[in-house]
Amino acid sequence: xxxxxxxxxxxxxxxxxxxxxxxxxxxxxxxxxxxxxxxxxxxxxxxxxxxxxxxxxxxxxxxxxxxxxxxxxxxxxxxxxxxxxxxxxxxxxxxxxxxxxxxxxxxxxxxxxxxxxxxxxxxxxxxxxxxxxxxxxxxxxxxxxxxxxxxxxxxxxxxxxxxxxxxxxxxxxxxxxxxxxxxxxxxxxxxxxxxx
Length: 196
Prior knowledge:
The protein has helices at 3-38, 49-53, 106-117, 150-156, 171-184; strands at residues 57-58, 60-65, 68-71, 83-87, 90-91, 122-125, 138-144, 148-149, 161-162. The chain is an alpha+beta fold.
């Protein structure tokens, strides 16, 4: 066996050892990056939205429109003193702003939400697969003690349409509430009531 023959097995072992070491280093770096990210040391910040908001009671401090409002809890992710809430599974007419006019029934939807909530607290119910929406708002099913679901009430009053882009636990209940509004010709469906 020549010198070249004995060097080949050693070279193979060194290459395997180098690859293993590279994989171990990459795994250690990845673990360190994940730990740094969770600690908030990197650019991406996290908040445990389910622990912070799911099932909690809060007070509304500012109404934006029929399906959006701020509550009296700080938003750690967005570094704000209040948290913006967007109602799950529906879309109310948009209030006007900047260079766009309000959509028809936007004022009525806002007034309805304000009256439904009143001075009382609201209870938030989140979905673990999607606690926040596109704009960083908490998305919630909202219950008002003694009054029931704000989401369903808006749909039944015809002041919102179902938004079925993302699956949620109340999809069929919300669709049923909208069908009731359509049948009664309520709000957005005025003039289109269906006969019994």
